[in-house]
Amino acid sequence: MVYYNGALATCKSKQNERHISIPMEISQQIHKFIELRVPHSIISYEVHDSWYTCRPVPDSQCAQLGIRSNDPKPQVVDKDYISLLSPTKILVLGCSTWGDICEQFGDHVNVIATDGGVLVQIMHKSASKEKAVQCVLSDIGVRSENVMVFGDDFNDLGLFHMSGFPVAMENAIIELKNCAAHVTDSNDHDGVAVAIERFVV
């Protein structure tokens, strides 16, 4: 399984885990940089399977973070606690200056704006979905041209280029649809299941 845009990958059959976190010093600098430039933004940290923020996420913005009505929200902690973390991924909601983050910290992290630029995702520079998938495939002895992948946003482009059968969701960005082998139904209409039933089962 690949999580956090490739910053965490696990292979249960081989009992392997590959985890790449953002160093604490860099995450502290990024946090301060965002707070100074976009003080109204909501910054949250994903650390393995835990999710933290210093400011509660308003119900009106939950969907933008992928939180469904019954899903747990990030745990609210104080700034001292969050400043001591080495996050797997930093999520920033409402940050319009993501290009400035790239310019300032691009030597250390990957910065991806998704969901129409509303959500900024920040991972360690060496983390990507395609690298994580390649590691898992290497562990289990499968070649990338024999793999079907699914995607809907910019953070899936590298994955699409390394896969033998990339499938774009109906709600995907046009860049993914243009390089997809197939376009399936949207996320809301079980597009992954539809494609698997059509091509695999």
Automatic annotation (TrEMBL):
Coiled coil spans: none
Q: Name one Pfam family in it.
A: Hydrolase_3
InterPro entries documented for this protein: HAD-like_sf, HAD_sf
Record GO terms (molecular function) = magnesium ion binding; phosphatase activity
Q: Which domain of life is it from?
A: Bacteria
Sorted keywords for this record are:
Hydrolase
A Gene Ontology cellular-component term: cytosol
SUPFAM superfamilies, A to Z: HAD-like
User: What protein is this chain from?
Assistant: Cof-like hydrolase
